Amino acid sequence: MVTTSRRVERHENEPDSVGLNPLFARPGEATELPKFRLPAGESLPETAYQIVHDEAMLDGNARLNLATFVGTWMDEHAQRLYLEAADKNMIDKDEYPQTAAVETRCWTMLADLWHAPDPEHTIGTSTIGSSEACMLGGLALKRRWQHARRAAGKSTERPNLVMSSAVQVCWEKFCNYFDVEPRYVPISWDHKVLDGYELEKYVDENTIGVVAILGVTYTGMYEPVEKIAQALDRIQETTGLDVPIHVDGASGAMIAPFLQPDLRWDFAVDRVASISTSGHKYGLVYPGVGWVVWRSADALPDDLVFKVSYLGGEMPTFALNFSRPGAQVLLQYYMFLRLGIEGYTRVQGASRDVALYLSGEIAKMPAFELWNDGSDIPVFAWRLKPDHTKNWNLYHLSDRLRMKGWLVPAYPMPADLPDVTVQRVVVRNGLSHDLASAFLADLREEVAYLDALTGPMPAEAHHPGFHH
């Protein structure tokens, strides 16, 4: 999948070159290197390393980043394995057949974990992340709908996909890129997630599927997959429309099996056709791997699958990317072997304990009101009480916390709740009770500082600090 980013604007007085520290410059080397052009000559590896190292040092401390879901810590054995496998290309099944075999083992394990009827005879794939996995799930929904419509002699124009207004941006991209009309069911204080309420207003004969999110990006709350399926059952009873569900389990699909084993959200719900997740979120792997699994092989239309030569036979492949790292797939297998069900339960439970501790303490602060407490995935959000102060807002608090090294985003809720601004904390493996206590101490200190203001803070140029 091709990704682009907006060019970072240069500061008005930013120099065009990097000046070298005399301690690292060697006799005969240039003392300055251009920032925006390829240098004319070579540099010693030690010099180039030091320049890049110093540039990267200016990034935030990943362990203090409470904004991202993406993994920021793995143990030393995983790091060794990462280096050993850095040259493996996941798409090259012929050159790296054992890595391809490990990939199959991983998604088969997930199919079993998610109660697929016949895990060994279903189909799945690794991806570069959960966004690509979602797009593959969406493409399968669209193609299945097209086949059914053509078989019935009906038009395949104007497909639509139904989802919450709090959906992650990858679904907006899917609809944009693949010509599908997005139909957003608004969230509200009464319906904080997509829960099946008034779903019949959004579903029609052109609906390719409904997306259920197991861990909404904005707040971490689960959407009740079984209730959504029951609403679709009622719709089918009255209209005959058989609408499948894709579960976007970017985070929750690696939490619910361990912390909420009795929750019915996966292939145990008959209407669930496919499930996606991030290996690099609560799968506990460094960035660069996601997974998608279908209920059965026939849930993925065969005309979406390409066949490539593999050990004298054929290997099916379905992806938006071509060349991509194989190392993260091996890291995922390492984590599955390293932790197992017992280990994942313990690690995810520790994260949830920290989330509940943090949310409980924040709920006691007079300034705040919780949106949720982190009892689904270890993620929770809060808002500033409307009558607490006129002198500061959550954007100011976010800026103050950043000065202490903590990245805690403030952002508006979706368009249906435009006047609600929240802050969110994501608790990942590595955020210990000690670090959580240090964060609380800094949070209380900054709130006290802001509460002591005798006049309002400036409010210009505040904007949401995350899209992830």
UniProtKB/TrEMBL annotation:
Alphabetical keyword list: Decarboxylase, Lyase, Pyridoxal phosphate
Cofactor: pyridoxal 5'-phosphate
Reaction equation(s) it catalyzes: L-glutamate + H(+) = 4-aminobutanoate + CO2
InterPro entries to which the protein is assigned, alphabetical: Glutamate_decarboxylase, PyrdxlP-dep_de-COase, PyrdxlP-dep_Trfase, PyrdxlP-dep_Trfase_major
First and last residue of the signal peptide: none
Residues covered by region (Disordered): 1-21
A Pfam family that the UniProt record links to this protein: Pyridoxal_deC
Membership in a protein family: Belongs to the group II decarboxylase family.
Name of the protein in question: Glutamate decarboxylase
